[in-house]
Amino acid sequence: MHSWPYLALLFNAMVWGLAWWPFQTMRAAGLAAPWATGMIYSVLALGTIVCLRGSLAQFLRHPVLWLLALSSGLTNVSFNTAASTGDVVRVILLFYLMPAWTVLLAWRFLGERPTPQSLLRLVLAFSGMALVIVPPGATWRSLTAGLGLPEYLAIFGGLCFAMTNVILRRCFHTPSMARVLAMFLGCMGMGLATATAGYLGGQFPGIPAPAPGWIACAVGMAVLVAIGSWALQYGASRIPTSTTSLIMLSEVLFASISAWLLGATELTPRMLLGGALIVGGALLAVLQHRRPH
């Protein structure tokens, strides 16, 4: 069926749009997001190495994949920690400044000069960010009053996600499963490193005693992320990149609606307008790539 690739991408967007709930559930049970991230991706990385025996050798043969591992790991740990500790909708919207960061990074590292359309996307995205995070009536001295650690992590995670996309474009010649393994290893390593450093510094608790609740969430997320990763590879290889980007935006809807229904966020008019500007900037990127050259 021709609809399967679209459904696969929609499933992947749903997984990450709803990921905030299991991570918040695990945090409530005493398992901090970096520990959870490290555990989940340890299972995925080891499973990939065992099932695809050539993937580790391919990963080791391409040094550029270490950069991919680093950027992917920073992206995942930042997003999961932000989503488990902050306002879900604010986190998702700030994370989706990613297309704006991509314009700047592609200019610096790929030599792609910004076009008038890409500059418009920057204006829309950062105007939306201001509406989402700056309190009404804020002065220049209080511009950061609405920012907490989750917001900073969401913005940083979006920047790292943009860097991941730039690196993927630079290492397109590498085997696809080596790239997937690099991402899994990066998320595993960065998750465990962040959790260990946070624990030693007194910022995170240790791993809690085994309990059915958080173990079920961790195993469930590992299964869903594995299926979602396969779905992304399956769908993205069969439909245009611009369409893939458009479907990815449904993650914002899944996260916003689920968080609102479960009482995890309050959708104010200011946040809705800011979100519309951020999503509008991302949509412009999709439409620009769809336009025939």
TrEMBL record:
It holds the Pfam family EamA. The chain crosses the membrane at residues 7-23, 29-52, 64-82, 88-107, 119-140, 152-168, 180-201, 213-232, 244-263, 269-287. Residues 4-133, 152-286 form the EamA domain. Keywords: Membrane, Transmembrane, Transmembrane helix. SUPFAM superfamilies: Multidrug resistance efflux transporter EmrE. One of its GO terms (cellular component) is membrane. PANTHER family: ACYL-MALONYL CONDENSING ENZYME-RELATED. This is DMT family transporter.
